[in-house]
Amino acid sequence: MLRVRGTMVINTWWRHDPKERFWLEITNREDIGTNLLAPQANDRGEEYWSYALVREVRPGDLVLHWDKNHGPGVVGYSHARGGAFASTITWQSRGTYGRQRSASGPEPAWEAALGGYRRLKHPVTQARLREIEPTVRALRDHLTEVVAGPLYFPFALSDTRPLRAAQGYLTKLPRALVESLPELRELRQTAISEPHEPEAPDLPPSPLPKPRRSAGYGRQRDAERRQAVERYAMDLVLNHYRTLGYQVEDVGDHSPWDITARKNETELHVEVKGSTTTREAIDLTEGEVRHAEGIPTCLVVIDQIELGDDLHCRGGRWRSWDDWAPAREELVATAYRYPLPAGGHGGRPSA
C-alpha cells in the first residue's frame, strides 16, 4: 500500500498484518523512551522517509531503541501512547552537511508520545546482530521478494562492511526479525494482538506467510487446553496456601481476582496466571488492573507447565510478586471495546 502525505510517498507494506507493530528508533539522545520526535524536513528542506515514518506509528505499536552511545545496540523498548501529531523541534543534523551549520531554532516536527519504557534484560548488541547477519540478510532478501517498494529496513547490509544500523532516525522493524531473537521474547509476548489467543511454542518462526488457523474443532481444542492449564495453576496455588494454614476460596468466577486466602485476621487477594510457555508478559483485564491498584494483591505466575495430549498438566516454574500493582504507563493495549454507532442496517448484508 502506498500512502501519500504531502509530497512524500510512504510504502506502508506492513498494514495488512496487524502483528507488524514494531519500529526501531536509532538515536544518541539521553532521554530514550520519552517520545519519537523528528523534523518534518531535512537540512535541504525536503521530506525524508525516516522522519516521515513517525506519522505512521499507531497507538500500541512497539518502538525499540537503538542507542548509539551505549553499545551500540537495542537497549530497551516503549509503546506508542497515541498517534503522531504536529510539533516543533530544535535540532542539528548529525550528517556531514548538518555539522557545517549551527543548531536551528524551533522547526516543524512530527511527534508521537511513548510510554512504559523498559530496558531489555539482555540488550541486542551490534556484535550479537553481526553473529546472526546471515539470518538478518535472509529475512531482508525474503521481504525484498514479497514487498514491492521500500522496506525502510533498520540495518545496512553490504558485501564490504559488517552489519550496522541504517542511516536514519526511525525505521520499520520487521516482525520476522523480532521473532528470530530470543532476547526479544518479552517484546513478542507484549505485542500479541488479541488477548488470550493460543500460545505458540518458543521457537524461531519461519519468515514465510502462515496459513490462517481454521475455525471449529481447533479453536475448541485450544480453549480446552487453556482451561486445563489455568485450572492446574489455580489448584497449585490453592493447595500451597492451604499448606500454609490459610482458608482459601476460588473467587475468579465473580471477582476481579482469583483467590481469597484468610488466616487469623489476615486476608490475601491472589491473582494467578498459568502458561505452558516461558512468560515475560501476561494478559490483564481492566477489572484486574483496577482491583490491584486499590487493594494489595499478590501476583503468582506459573509458566513452563507441561501439557500432555490428554490435557494432563505437570511441573511449572513459580514466580510471585507481593503487593503487586501494574503501572498504567506500562500497560499495552491489545484489544478495544467499541460502542456500536447508530444506523446499522438490519438483517443480512447484501451481496
- The end-to-end span amounts to 26 Å
Mean pLDDT: 87
The geometry reads as globular
Number of domains: 2
SS-based structural class?
alpha+beta
Helix share, percent:
10-25%
Which CATH class of the largest domain? Answer: Alpha Beta
CATH architecture tag of the largest domain: Roll
- Unreliable residue stretches: 1-5, 95-101, 203-216
Secondary-structure element series: EEEEHEEEEHHEEEHHHEEEHEEEE
β-strand amount: 25-35%
- How many strands in all? 18
CATH fold-level topology of the largest domain: ph1033 like fold
Supply Rg: 24 Å
| Tally of DSSP helical segments | 7
Task: Give a quick account of the main beta sheet: strands, pairing sense, barrel closure.
Answer: 7 strands, mixed
Describe it for me?
There is one protein chain. The chain has helices at 49-52, 126-131, 133-146, 175-179, 185-190, 217-243, 286-294, and strands at 2-5, 8-11, 22-27, 35-39, 62-67, 73-80, 85-89, 107-125, 155-156, 164-165, 170-172, 247-250, 259-263, 266-274, 297-303, 306-307, 313-314, 317-324. With 351 residues, it is an alpha+beta fold. The protein has two domains: 2-94 and 104-190, ph1033 like fold (Roll), CATH 3.10.590; 217-330, Trna Endonuclease, Chain: A, domain 1. Strands 3, 4, 5, 6, 7, 8 and 11 form a seven-stranded mixed β-sheet that branches.
Please specify the SSE layout and strand pairing.
Blueprint: E1 2-5, E2 8-11, E3 22-27, E4 35-39, H1 49-52, E5 62-67, E6 73-80, E7 85-89, E8 107-125, H2 126-131, H3 133-146, E9 155-156, E10 164-165, E11 170-172, H4 175-179, H5 185-190, H6 217-243, E12 247-250, E13 259-263, E14 266-274, H7 286-294, E15 297-303, E16 306-307, E17 313-314, E18 317-324
